[in-house]
Amino acid sequence: MKVVSRTQKAGIAALGTFDGLHLGHQAIVARAKAWALELALPVTVITFRRHPLELWGKAPPALMTLRQKESALAELGVDMLLPLDFTPKLAGLTGHDFIAFLRRLGVRGAVVGYNYTFGKGGEAGPGELALWAPFPVKIVEKVEAAGIPVSSSRIREALSAGEMMEARQLLGRSYAISGTVVSGAGRGRILGFPTANLEVPPEILLPKEGVYTVRAAGANMGAGGAVLNLGPCPTFGQMFQTIELFLPNFQGDLYGQTLTVEFIRYLRPQRRFAEPALLVRQIKADLAELRKDENLV
Length: 297
Prior knowledge:
It is a single chain. By secondary structure, the chain is α/β, with parallel strands linked by helices. It has nine helices and 14 strands. It has a six-stranded parallel β-sheet with strand order 1-4-3-2-5-6, with helices on both faces. A six-stranded antiparallel β-barrel has the order 9-10-13-12-11-14. Helix 2 links the parallel strand 3 and strand 4. It is elongated.
């Protein structure tokens, strides 16, 4: 898949913010891909580099970075990705002006979700797009998973509550973050459990603070199970938030490396232990829980 400029011809376009690329978004992309194959045209996802509400300082935490979105779309068979900057000029386009903009991009057909909006202030929706556009439009209706309507906001709620299974059902995959390994306090090595401290982009949504089983992957370590501690370390008086990974099956230097972490299961909340020995005992218990998740080891 190529990340393209506005000079490319879009062909069949899937339109939307696609934050999280959940099952509803995947249905839109699948419809666009099938249609493009019928017409022997490329399929392009036209989206935004950042959430449009960021322009007014009201953007919710993001569920994925643009790079993660690019990788996921490539796996779905998308030919091209066109990420737009949501500028005041773009935000000020009327619905008709935005359609003219799509025509200049070479859009020959568009696929949108049932709640898609466009034009200044979100003045128009899928019905208006189908009525006003000089190209055909297909609308994907609401998608449900396990009886739950799929939406980015519902996924954020699940993650904030530590409900990783619900988030996985709505996303169609485990929620994942990607970040860089940075230096930490070094306490894990002293305790006998070397850790990797992860730094992620500030706009990315982090789940509820606590301890999780996860699957971690990186170029220099392959992939494997890990225990992740998200939050402060009250046992040592550290009250600022960190993301700390215990990697039981890895020995080596990961500083500066990029790791991707898939959240599997919420184990427990943060605790303050009276002494380090009790923390070590709890870490051993957490690692025993990790071994129960057979898909990780």
